[in-house]
Amino acid sequence: MYPSLGKNIINMMLVDDQAYLEENALELLNYPDSFEKTLHVEFIEDDYALVFYEWGHILSYNMFGMAEMEKNLFSWELITAYSEYRPENYSIEWLIVELDDYTVMRGRIADEDIDKVMLNMAGEAYEVDHFGNGSNYWFYIGEKEDYTGASLQGISVSGEVIEEIAFSEATVQ
């Protein structure tokens, strides 16, 4: 009878979930004496989301994390969280995490001349998603598969490859 009514209710629920996760997800982590900042919430399904965040101490946010969240009947709960020091010797900082059903690559663009990040794998090129102030953070969510032989490229506005990182077997395990 009212086909758009259901869609609007679902959209309102997602907006509420988005706001809830942006404001509350990091409280579940309980990092002692630290400062946390939510960078981005990515919904994989209506009841499953990844929350990307930075955390650190008073002088710097030097840790980059990702929380895996699942919605139960009443609220969102933390499944697990991954947090690591950001590698600082690359123009494209990057980390890889294997989840139950997905592989997540995430990082920060540390070189202001890089306009986009591309993932090259099995002869195909994929532009990764960007987020954050100035779009200096990126992520790629893919199927669980072998990423050995894949590479990340940081590309300038003019199309020049500024940095390329080739993945080896040691990189993706």
Give an overview of the whole structure.
With 173 residues, the protein is mainly beta. It is globular, with a radius of gyration of 17 Å. The termini are far apart. β7 and β8 form a beta hairpin. Helices cover 13% and strands 51% of the residues. It has 1 helix and 12 strands. The model is unreliable at 1-12 (pLDDT under 50). It has 2 domains: 1-85, Roll (Nuclear Transport Factor 2, Chain: A), CATH 3.10.450.630; 88-173, Immunoglobulin-like (Sandwich), CATH 2.60.40. The strands form 3 sheets. A 4-stranded antiparallel beta sheet has the order 1-2-3-4, covered by helices on one side.
Strand order of the largest sheet: 1-2-3-4
> In terms of structural class, how would the helical and strand content be classed?
mainly beta
Enumerate the spans where pLDDT stays under 50 for 5 or more consecutive residues. Answer: 1-12
Q: What helical percentage do the residues reach?
A: 10-25%
Count every beta strand, where a strand is a DSSP E run of 2 or more residues. Answer: 12
In whole angstroms, how far apart are the ends?
52 Å
Overall CATH architecture of the largest domain: Sandwich
SSE run: HEEEEEEEEEEEE
Q: Determine the number of helices (DSSP H or I, runs of at least 4 residues).
A: 1
Main sheet characteristics: 4 strands, antiparallel
CATH level 1 name of the largest domain = Mainly Beta
Q: What fraction strand?
A: over 45%
Question: For the CA atoms, what is the radius of gyration?
Answer: 17 Å
Name the CATH superfamily assignment of the largest domain. Answer: Immunoglobulins
Number of domains: 2
Overall mean pLDDT:
80
What is the CATH third-level topology name of the largest domain? Immunoglobulin-like
* Shape assignment: globular
